[in-house]
Design brief:
This protein is α+β, with helices and mostly antiparallel strands. It has 8 helices and 14 strands. The chain has one domain. Strand 9 and strand 10 form a beta hairpin.
Length: 336
Amino acid sequence: MAQPSNTFETYDAVGNRETLADQIYLITPDETPFLSMIGKKSVEGVHPEWQTDTLANPDPNNNQPEGNDWIFQAVTPTTRVGNYCQISDKRISISGTQDVVSKAGRKSEMAREIAKKGQELKTDMEVTLISNQASSAGSGNAASNRKLGGMRAWLATNDLLGAGGASGGFNSTTGLVDAATNGTQRALTKALLDSAISSAYVAGGNPTTLMLSPYAKTVFSTFMSDANVAQQRFAAKGTSQTTIVAAADAYLSDFGTLAVVPNRQMARAGATIARNAFLIDPSMAKLGTLRDIHREDPAKTGDQEKKVLLVEYTLVVNNEAAHAVIADIFGMTSSS
């Protein structure tokens, strides 16, 4: 149908009011499962250290003669390990004018940015803590910065690698945590999971959580169709709706039950993080805080308000043998 001549349209008008909704819709996920799981402890220096120890292997030939004149066994010292504290921040500068003009969806630009940047800082911490980042002592005059060794880098005892991969772990010679070397990626399988659980158990660990990227979580749920997994059966009651069960959130192994936790930040950080499936004992890892997340108020130098959110933190891995990792899995797609 044709439009009548001289019809006055919104395209012609100059006085129509805007209809900007008085709401800001934020959908980006801000959960930090690893950070929330492990708890925190205060540290008192930029290089916190702690000691680990292990028992000797059982000796099935420990039988001694009567009247034995003892030869004393060597005493094995503890192992001294440590990590470096890393400084992370988020910086905000808002002009004086922007903070007072009428705005949609928020009263204060600064208050909104502080809340948003606080969540962003926590997600930065989440992916750094579980990363393959090697630790670094840094150097003076800001030539290089201190970096904490991430969880993937720490794990060496129970490290299931792809072909060509190599473990990192704490290096007693340098006093640093070395990054692992990536191997060839492969699919996550029930056999790999069972092997990792068994390895951690034999080493003395009791991990309670399996942490996966979202894609790897969907792969885990297919383990229900494995021939060695008991079938799940649910009764349909009366006229109630029937539920199709296509996911699993726990895994009862020969050595205990694992809660299976998807971590969206692993996918957001990309394949370098998502390629790892972590078996975690939350009691054997802590967020070490030298300076917990706080707000700094820089000096005013012009017609703007400035704030900085800052944290100085590290990862304390009480004993890396308590955990395990299935490395080099496809974590983003079936081929990446």
